[in-house]
Amino acid sequence: MAYEITLLTTMAISVLFALSLNFITGFCGQISLGHAAFMGVGAYTAATMMKASISLLFVIPVAAVFAGVLGLLVGFASLRVRHDFLAITTMGVVFLFVGVVRQQEFLGGEIGISGIQQSVLGRTGFMLLCVVLAGVFAGFSLLVKRSWLGFVFDSIADNEDVSQVLGIDVAKYKLFAFVVGTATAGTAGALYAQHYRFVGPDSFGFVESISVLAMVVVGGIGSVWGVMFAAAVLSVLPLLIQFVDDYKILVYSALLFSMMRFSPDGLAGIVQRLLNRVRNR
After folding, report:
1. Annotated domain spans of the chain
2. Is the pLDDT of residue 2 over 80?
């Protein structure tokens, strides 16, 4: 039973993390290649506080706020850049984060922070907390996608200049997407720290940013259900198949390339096309 709880917890955290990137990239069209840095901020914030015996339920919102503030700063810095330049800018954030963490002794340096105490919720209670948080944000994402805000995001993703002409405050909504997405990534980071009871600089590098991007692309950029399914499957594959664990970046990169080349709308697009064919018949 303990193994199944571990798998469900891992899946829930990965789903929450992938949905946080989907909110920025899938909904608002802002490419981010450094999303793991925001998860790292939440994880290190949570690890430091939990080492001081502070309750997890208090730690989670604090970690979200810290990650959201960093997201706001990066969002402000990214307002004047788009597309490839935005990707490069966000990629620089993750390298900067890892470099800073490695040099700070109070954050554990190269070794990281270990010995994080287990929450009073226990394994089952913590698993349920992760599932609930992932479900709540999934519901929020669906609500946004089907609301007027979702149409605003679609307009910005399609063409920022036209959106500006139509009277949409592009900067405001881009910043909103960045803050919500990064704060949610910080929440996932806090859960990660409690789940593994260890955080280190190698846990939140460029490889992790590519991994979560692969989950979003494979699931279908902008699709809530597709991203949830892809994140759940890809997060546990390294635990179930040794080859995937040994060559994780190779497997994820191959999936990323294959989807972008043959099905840019991901698994969600494939399922939709199959359903359309069945209906037509």
Report:
1. 2-203
2. no
